[in-house]
């Protein structure tokens, strides 16, 4: 079953100065994608390719000019207020800018508790225990619930945002450059965390990134977005080699070996 489906999405914006006619810039052109249950679809593209615009449309945060966004077989644009709210429960997001994704005056506990309070009626003691468990699931401590956002490192605050995203056990999480601002050590920990949560909760991911290394590590299938168009698609990572677009080839060629040549020679030598 396809949980999330985008059909022929077009999106354009007006640009120009204060005077004269303003041109329309086509950002997305007939983009179609599907995300299956329990799957991780990697969306790869350079900065300015339209990735974040596509994520906002997939979340229903802004409408496409044409095309359809379907979640669990139902078009988001046609949902009533109550149905739309229920959809929000099953469709969550983790943005790139963790500090900009939270209210700086709310504690971590309040940030994680917010979706629970919006959709469920629980006592304060139950809510406190659930928030503590969620923080522990993402590698933090229950006592961290009392901290404000500025008291966390970037990686820790991103974990708070992930805890908020999984609080209601959603069917789909859209990860929009969710680890791109983190150093490689923290990136690895967050990616391991996301992979573990996917196995434990069965959540599907739309994993959006410009970093092909991360996509190759996390995704089951891959779509390449270039200048608003899907220019390559691999249903299964074993078929990645069939993508022939120059952008994909350039990104693959740009992947560096984790060790310089001299260190590789030392590490490969027999003990």
Explained architecture:
The chain has 271 residues and is an alpha/beta fold. The protein has one domain: Rossmann fold. The protein has nine helices and ten strands. The strands form two sheets. Strands 6-7-8-3-9-10 form a six-stranded mixed β-sheet, with helices on both faces. A four-stranded antiparallel β-sheet has the order 2-1-4-5, with helices on one face. Strand 7 (172-176), helix 6 (184-201) and strand 8 (204-209) form a beta-alpha-beta unit. The longest helix is centred in the C-terminal third of the chain and has 18 residues, at 184-201. The termini are far apart. The model is unreliable at 263-267 (pLDDT under 50).
Order of helices and strands: EEEHEEHEHHHEHEHEEHH
Q: Per DSSP, what share of the residues sits in E-state strands of 2 or more residues?
A: 25-35%
Report the structural category: alpha/beta
CATH class: Alpha Beta
Tally of contiguous helical segments: 9
The proportion of residues forming helix, as a percent range, comes to 25-40%
Shape: globular
- Which second-level CATH architecture applies? 3-Layer(aba) Sandwich
First and last CA, distance:
51 Å
Count of folded domains? 1
* Mean pLDDT figure: 87
């Amino acid at each position: 079953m396809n949980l999330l489906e985008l059909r022929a999405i077009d999106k354009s914006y007006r640009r120009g100065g204060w005077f004269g006619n303003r041109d329309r810039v086509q950002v997305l052109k007939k983009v179609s994608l599907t995300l299956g249950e329990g799957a991780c679809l990697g969306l790869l593209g350079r900065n300015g390719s339209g990735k974040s615009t596509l994520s906002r449309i997939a979340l229903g945060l802004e409408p496409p000019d044409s095309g359809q966004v379907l979640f669990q077989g139902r078009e988001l644009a046609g949902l009533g207020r109550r149905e739309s709210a229920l959809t929000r429960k099953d469709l969550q997001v983790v943005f790139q800018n963790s500090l900009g994704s939270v209210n700086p005056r709310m504690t971590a506990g309040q940030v994680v508790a917010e979706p629970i309070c919006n959709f469920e009626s629980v006592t304060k003691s139950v809510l406190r225990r659930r928030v503590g468990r969620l923080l522990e699931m993402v590698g933090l401590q229950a006592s961290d619930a009392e901290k404000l956002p500025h008291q966390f490192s970037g990686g820790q605050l991103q974990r708070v945002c992930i805890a908020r995203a999984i609080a209601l056990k959603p069917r789909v999480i859209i990860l929009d450059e969710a680890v791109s601002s983190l150093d490689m050590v923290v990136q690895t920990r967050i990616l391991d965390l996301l992979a573990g949560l996917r196995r434990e909760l069965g959540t599907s991911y739309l994993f959006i990134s410009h970093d092909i290394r991360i996509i190759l590590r996390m995704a089951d299938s891959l779509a390449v977005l270039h200048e608003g168009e899907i220019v390559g698609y691999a249903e299964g990572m074993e078929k990645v080699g069939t993508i022939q677009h120059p952008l994909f080839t350039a990104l693959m060629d740009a992947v560096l070996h984790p060790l310089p040549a001299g260190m590789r020679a030392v590490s490969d030598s027999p003990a």
